Please model this.
Amino acid sequence: MTDQPDVPEFPAQRGNAYRDTWCGEISPDRVGGEARLAGWVNRRRDHGGLVFIDLRDRTGLVQLVFDPDDSGTAFALGHKLRPEDVISVAGPVVERSAETVNPEIPTGAFEIRVAEADLLSDAQTPPFEIEGRGASEVGEETRLRYRYLDLRRENMREALQLRAAIVRAMRTQLDGDGFVEIETPVLTRSTPEGARDFLVPSRLQQGSFYALPQSPQLFKQLLMVAGFERYYQIARCFRDEDLRADRQPDFTQLDIEMSFVEVEDVIAANERLMAHVLGVAGIEVDLPIPRISHDDAIARFGTDRPDLRFGMELTDLTDALRETEFRVFRGTIDGGGIVKGMNAGKRDLARSELDGLIADAQELGAKGLVWAFREGDGWRSPTAKFLTEAELASLNGALGAEEGDLLLIVADEPKVANQVLGTMRTRLAERWGDIPEGANAFCWIVDWPLLEWSEDEGRWTPLHHPFTAFEGEIDESDPGAIRARAYDLVWNGSEIGGGSIRISDSAQQEQVLTLLGIDAEEAEARFGFLLEALRFGAPPHGGIAYGIDRICALAAGTESIRDVIAFPKTASGGDPLTGAPAPVDERQLRELGVTVRRPPAQQ
Ligand code: ASP
Model:
């Protein structure tokens, strides 16, 4: 976690019956005066005839001393206080004796001698300890069930304050750059971002449904047609996907759109934005951010989200093996596949660990994995005997292998080989501690293909969304070759944002929809309003959307986006605190004209 960035000065507390200052504000100049404080009992210790309490509010901790000589009534209360009770106290601020100073907390040199104390609300024994940092040993289900207690922990408070600072920095920068913040509807029509919609039945038009937005994509394009030119929104988005680890069904985007722009303009504005926003979180972004073409990213890192904090790039070895008679490589190459490898550097691995790598590769979908250590001009590897000396030498050359380097090789269809090695590259770097502490690496992925062939659906599908503009003309005989005017921003191997220049011509938009297998009738029904708007003078426009949850998680240095969301859902899409999703009354269903077909198990 970084230090608290850019938090506006804490406002002074107007004195009232509860408090006249904050726990964290007790400082040398208060000594000799009185303070009135309010907050939660963080910890209580009984020492002989005295009771010590650490009082906690949003700003920190301060020690209270209850001494029967100061006030018998306060002492009696102090004696029975329990963790998480809510109290208000008043009394003189004094310096602690040198040997009792607590250097761990900013107020550790002072204490309040309690003269008056009020119990405002007592607390049941919490299901887990609040004090201290980290989620410790508490299961996440329990933390989420009692999220209001979990959020009392210092690290959670810091994470949400960091999030607030990041969002504030987004607004400051964009407002300064002349963007207008505009809200778009949450009850709307389906917009396609490739996921399933959450649907809301309409009571007034029974049988009809609103969709919750997967993104404000179409509305922001309409705002460009409307002439706003520069728009942004901190937008809640909803995607009903089978939850992969670390996805949320509702999440927050920073959504941006600009008119009369080309790729370069959007990238320039966004580099400034990101440098400012992440600067606030203490993260330096070197500008310009390097760009890698989509195809290069796949070739060198096996993924369109490359982590550039370490090396271990992939190398295509197919050419070095054109003539090979090794059955496994031969079969793959003849079948249109590739042989790809990476030099994993000097590693001292036991045979069982090498077997483990093979198992990893198979679990990721590869048929197998060849491992080898360079030894002299050849290899130490069970596979060495199947390759000629010349082949071993040229593989060593292609992989830049030095004596003792571990080489990992996969032969498969290009997609599988890239995916498997790309995933192993990051996994191994993490496992072997290759990623430098505190390093940050950003890159833009550019020159995306517009479309990819979906085996499942038997049609071309967009890599971004159907409104993405492309270079040149559409060649229907080779849709896979069309290049999108799209860009994604990747930070340490995570995609944090993506966008494109949009199609601003109605006829061209229809052409792309046709290419996607959406016929004129369906196009009219689903996107007629966009096609129509584009006929009323649409400026060239483009934009981007960022995943705020992901950005905040990376900035906070936490693994899980749930740690930067106040009330997140579990991996199965539930909220253990409120019990959502939950059945509703028969009456509500009747009003909506909805009948539930329960899964057989519940009938
Ligand atoms: N609407 C897109 C998304 O949600 C982002 C964009 O193209 O601006 O991914």
